[in-house]
Amino acid sequence: MLDPFLAWLESTSLSVWIVESPSLLAFPGILTLHAIGMGFAVGINAALDLRILGVAPGVPVGEMRRFVPVLWFGFWLNAVSGVLLLIGYPTKALTNPLFYLKLALIAVGMVLFVRISRRVFRDGVELDTLEPEASHRLRRLAIVSIMCWSGAIFAGRFLAYTYTRLTQSQTY
Amino acid sequence: MHAIQVWLVKSIYAHSPVADLMHTHWAWPIAESFHFLGLCLLVGCVGTFDLRLLGLGRRVPIAAVHRLIPWGLLGFAINITSGSMFLLTEPDQYIYNPSFHLKLLFMTIGGLNAATFYLTSYRRVFSANASLDAPTHAKVIAAISLTAWMAVIVGGRLLTFFRPGECIGEQTALLLTCVP
Fold first, then answer.
1. B136 FRET partner, CA 20 to 30 A, in A13, A72, B89, B94?
2. Rg (CA), chain B
3. Which of B115, B136, B109 is nearest to B125 (CA)?
4. Could you tell me where the DSSP H helices lie in B23-135?
5. Phi, psi of B166 (to 5 degrees)
């Protein structure tokens, strides 16, 4: 049922350009933006998680808010570049279960980010005055967040090695 | 330089300590995944510090944000380790790759730039009565740092698109960018 749609998507001029253009701005450039966006989105998430886990104790956790726009910049850069990569090779991604695992891990990672943000930015929680129980909960969120982002990275990298079909016209 | 490149490739192929390990199933993608994790730690921690020097989160003392740097260095160490494993397994794919040459160039710039920071700005930025606003030279260093590490990512990500082919004819450039 999906195949005719994927065949159509792969025949669009955008998809053909992404895959076949010899320009470095096409597939290689999009892939590069995806790596840079990852660095900012996952990197700032990791810095926030590390702060919650006790790293850089002199930084008031609420002040980490200033760096959140950089995280969102990375996130949207990767949403856009990711969609472009998907338009380039829709069959390759959508026929691989690992792709859905990657998306799920990113979704959970972002939900955790929003929950952590609410606690430390909106509610203005300070880490050293937090009740032990609440502190444990927040630390747990940070640890699961790190695990989700690491998992998403592993899943993303393994996509290149585990696909069974590259395009509608080719099989691997 | 050509002779050095050829010698490097030859000796690595002859003595590589990790090639057998890296040729096992999944070793390569696992090492790549760690390379990406290290990248995120480096960008997240060093990048946050650079952005702080440039004026983001101005109310936080610079020295406090600097405590993230060891984690950025951990990311860097992860990447030197995993990166060396690639290099020591397929040396010709890197040593003759122009994208790798640029990556090394920008890593050197990033490294020398960081050294410059500790040699010139350390005392002014970290003294007890340091201003919350970093001095201009520290901001320039931060901007160079962000740019250099971005360029390192670009050079790394483009490696596969500049895989060296067999050399054809006389090579006159400073560095070999094909397999002799």
1. A72
2. 19
3. B136
4. 27-54, 62-66, 69-87, 91-95, 98-120, 122-126
5. -65, 140
Confidence of residue A172 (pLDDT cuts 50, 70, 90): very low
How many Cβ atoms are within 10 Å of B92's Cβ, its own excluded? 20
Interface test with A, best of B24, B25, B46, B48 (most A CBs within 10 A): B48
Which token pair is B130? 């340091």
pLDDT digits 0-9 by tens, A17-40: 999 999 999 999 999 999 999 999
Separation of alpha carbons A112 and A141, rounded Å: 6
Whole-prediction pTM: 0.94
Task: Tell me which amino acid residue B83 is.
Answer: G
Task: Choose the closest CB to B44 out of A47, A157, A158.
Answer: A47
Q: Say if A22 is an interface residue toward chain B (CB within 8 Å).
A: no
Judged by DSSP in three states, B179 sits in strand
Distance CA A15, CA A127 (A): 48
Provide the token pair at B71. 């984690």
